[in-house]
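Sequence dictates fold. Next comes a concrete instance:
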Amino acid sequence: MIKFFLNLKLGNLPIKRDTKMEAKAIQTSKYLEVQEIQEHLKNVEYIIMATSAPEKFQETPIHFTIFLNTQERFPQDIQDAILDKFLDDNKIKNPTELMSQLMPVGFGVNTGQDTAMPMLLIKQDDMRSIPHVPMFVMDFLADSDNFYEAKVHKLTGWTYSYN
């Protein structure tokens, strides 16, 4: 079972947290099956996830992952335009350590969550054991004052954007 932190809505959207701002681990009790993932992603344009970056990255204290709901491979100029739009729209600055490509993505659920948690699958064991779909993923370190919970309180959160 994988542990993740408190689900919160990012930016100016409402967040879920206790009054002490302490991160609480969320136990992933179930993984969506491939057919459930496909149904879950209907009308989803993208998901953005933010968490604190490792401490050594002080200039880029937030680890962002953008999950685009597509299996399309984009040429570099299109990838750059997509990233620039996300950076501008979310007031994200100083992106570094960028990885962008099709990747396997699973979804974990728990009764305490409003939405399924996207999980970028890196390990071969996870890819074999967790149902997943390919999505175009942009993963990078950066800074933003709009993601205070991730930057200051070291919380992890994600939000969905629908068509």
Remarks:
- The first strand starts at residue 3 and ends at 4.
